[in-house]
């Protein structure tokens, strides 16, 4: 199982072994990452699972689809590294990935 590191806004780090096929959002919820709220339950309808993906990992991810790109326009402090964790399906290439929670999600 891939190991993903979550870094909360206050710097707290939490690692999670995540099943292939699950989402980064669900992994964050399962290990209690503060700031990944996921109010819509993963429907790509709220932006409360907004996260930042470190540069080396962005190229390995499936590009954001139109619905995710549209939702990211409404998050606070969108950036090049912004993604919605509900739209990131875990695969083996994500082993070691770092996911950061924006300060605005606390």
Task: Characterise the protein shown here.
The structure is a single chain. The chain is of the alpha+beta class. 17% of the residues lie in helices and 19% in strands. The relative contact order is 0.31. The model has no long low-confidence stretch (mean pLDDT 96). This is Ferredoxin, 2Fe-2S. InterPro entries: 2Fe-2S_ferredoxin-like_sf, 2Fe-2S_ferredoxin-type, Adrenodoxin-like, Beta-grasp_dom_sf. Its cofactor is [2Fe-2S] cluster. One of its GO terms (molecular function) is 2 iron, 2 sulfur cluster binding.
Q: Share of helix among residues? A: 10-25%
> Which stretches are poorly predicted, pLDDT < 50 over at least 5 residues?
none
Element order: H for helix, E for strand: EEHEHHEE
Report the portion of residues in β strands. Answer: 15-25%
Average pLDDT level: 96
Task: Tell me the name of the CATH homologous superfamily.
Answer: Beta-grasp domain
CATH topology description: Ubiquitin-like (UB roll)
**Total separate domains:** 1
Structural class: alpha+beta
Q: Order of strands across the widest beta sheet?
A: 2-1-5-3-4
Biggest sheet statistics: 5 strands, mixed
Total helical segments: 3
Q: What distance lies between the first and last C-alpha atoms, to the nearest angstrom?
A: 28 Å
Overall outline: globular
Q: Which value, in Å, is the CA radius of gyration?
A: 12 Å
The second-level CATH architecture is Roll
CATH class category name = Alpha Beta
- Number of DSSP-assigned strands: 5
GO molecular function: 2 iron, 2 sulfur cluster binding; electron transfer activity; metal ion binding
GO biological process, one term: P450-containing electron transport chain
Protein name: Ferredoxin, 2Fe-2S
Domain 2Fe-2S ferredoxin-type: 2-105
